[in-house]
Amino acid sequence: MSTSTNAVQRALLQLHYTIPKELLYETFVNNQNTYRDETISLDERIKNIIIRSRVNVDCDFVGGNLIFIYIGDLFTEYVNPYTAIVRIPKSKTGGKTIISVLSVYNILEVGMATPGAANPFIENNLVLAGNAMMNAMASAPAIISAYLELIGENTVLIRQNTTLTNMNFIRCVLSNDEDMSNLQIRSILQYAKLVELAVKSYIYNFWVVKIGMGFLVGGKELGPFKDVVESYSDAEAQYQDYLVNTWGAVQFMNSNENYVEFIRALVGPMR
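The structure corresponding to this sequence follows.
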């Protein structure tokens, strides 16, 4: 995948245009106590410290990928007649982790017009196109009255259930993958901005105390180095605001399933 269409690589490239190279190296390379320092590149350090550990985790908190998973072919463990446990293998989630379960749908009650749910037994382009057309015109599908709870990785507890059949789907949210490959190209620049703010926040917190203690490099005052670091003093506040108010909306609209459900809720089904 080219740098221009890879969200993480584009974010790393953007950093080299917005933050002085010397400051990046001093923060993430020269002052990091890691084993075999010479083998880890600057970009890889930023990915480990900022992107994987913070930004992508925060992205999961504010939103993920909405998906409908067919569970009719999975073993259902009944704790009692009204409580069931379903373990969803990662082969059904593309190797991703479920971070939120929302509802259970019964396809029998709405025919083929269940959002995002193709016939699990017939999968070809004609059937998928027909399903998409029916989905666009259909009312909201029937939702089984049940309480859902994640009790383990990809393990769902369904309470007060009375209508589980072999034609049920779970509506849930999946985590983003490590490279944020699920992002559409128009969302990549906003993701890069989120990473930039996170890096600036880290740099400020990393250096502010050292600068206050009169940290010296080669026996000379930091000068412009200090000025740049201090200009990042509000980066954390900007990051938090951008994460919730801007990135949350971008990630919501990035999902086609979210967008379709939002439009259906606004205008209702076609008649």
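Helices lie at 7-18, 21-28, 42-62, 125-137, 188-212, 224-230, 235-254, 256-267.
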